[in-house]
Design brief:
rod-shaped, 1 helix, 52 residues
């Protein structure tokens, strides 16, 4: 019985660590998308000022 409890706790810890890794990866991707969007917006803004 105790062995089953230990196995279940180990599985729960694996799932939780996987969720944290997935969240941090998702946050990194979100930050990269935001930085890219800001760079594109600044680039377009500069181009508009150069040609106006």
């Amino acid at each position: 019985m105790q062995e089953q409890v230990d196995d279940t706790q180990a599985q729960i810890l694996e799932i939780e660590s996987g969720d944290k890794a997935a969240k941090s990866k998702w946050r990194l991707q979100l930050k990269l998308v935001m930085v890219t969007a800001i760079c594109v917006a600044l680039g377009l803004h500069l181009l508009l000022h150069l040609f106006s």
